[in-house]
Design a protein that fits this description.
about 270 residues; alpha+beta; eight-stranded mixed β-sheet; 8 strands; about 20% strand; globular
């Protein structure tokens, strides 16, 4: 590992610690896999994930999300991706959504899609920031993300055709329902974040949660060295997409008090 580069890296979990070989140590403990594995960087690898929701046409009591089928594993997931060097996470989340769900065939279709996405992503709510229980994590490299929520109105959803692109095989509006097998097996920690958003939206709308019950707090596995419980970041605040400023504390919404935010961009290697 490049120690000069690593000492400038920050983790949502706190300061980085290093083993005897000067490799960063996973803050959640051992995974059974040493080294960097399939991840691009030692230590924290930062991503951004959009949770785009709408009420299902013809059934306003059922919530749907935009989900993509990953090209590498075939598992359904949120259409997110890695933060590029020097990139603001709020820019990443819009870029990844357009790349994975907006592969339009013509310039006219692409322009209409981008206009709809610009309207949808004009304001986003940060619902989680932290460690991700990702199958690619190793003892020395791990995933962290910022998850944003964007709710799509019925009129806007009509203007938002979906077509898979980049490394996605398929894209669809997926029912937020445990009886839907693709949703029940959503990639990594994605289902946990969507479940929390779904419960909050139903409470705001005055519906009792039916398809998705309020999720219990995740129970971490048995301690193996130094570990910290996963922190829920619901209600970190609202962030104007494209702004380099950190999220402001929410005065409405999920209502949690935000912890100190990490820098909004990934430093260049």
């Amino acid at each position: 590992p490049n120690l000069a580069e690593l000492k400038h890296r920050l983790s949502c979990e706190g300061p980085l610690f290093f083993d005897a070989d000067q490799r960063p140590v996973n803050p959640r403990g051992r995974t059974g896999v040493c080294g960097r594995g399939m991840l691009g960087k030692w230590g924290p690898n930062r991503a951004a994930d959009p949770i785009v929701t709408r009420w299902k046409p013809g059934d306003k009591r059922k919530l749907q999300i935009v989900a993509i089928q990953r090209g590498d594993t075939g598992v359904w997931a949120l259409p997110g991706g890695m933060v590029d060097a020097g990139e603001v996470v709020s820019v990443t989340v819009r870029r990844e959504f357009a790349e994975e769900a907006g592969n339009m065939a013509s310039d006219a279709e692409r322009a209409a899609f981008n206009a709809a996405v610009d309207e949808l992503f004009a304001h986003g709510e940060v619902v989680y920031r932290g460690y991700v229980d990702d199958p690619r994590n190793t003892d020395n490299a791990w995933m962290e993300t910022t998850a944003f929520h964007f709710h799509c109105t019925a009129d806007l959803a009509v203007q938002l055709p979906l077509r898979a692109g980049d490394d996605a095989h398929n894209v669809t509006w997926l029912d937020v329902d445990d009886a839907e097998p693709r949703y029940a097996a959503l990639y990594a920690s994605h289902k946990d974040w969507v479940d929390r958003v779904a419960c909050e939206l139903r409470l705001r709308k005055g519906h009792s949660p039916k398809a998705v019950a309020a999720p219990a707090e995740a129970t971490p596995p048995a301690p193996q060295g130094r570990r910290k419980p996963q922190r829920s970041m619901l209600g970190l605040g609202r962030l104007r997409i494209g702004s380099p400023k950190a999220a402001r504390p929410a005065t409405t919404g999920y209502g949690a008090s935000p912890p100190p935010s990490p820098p909004p961009s990934e430093p260049a290697s």
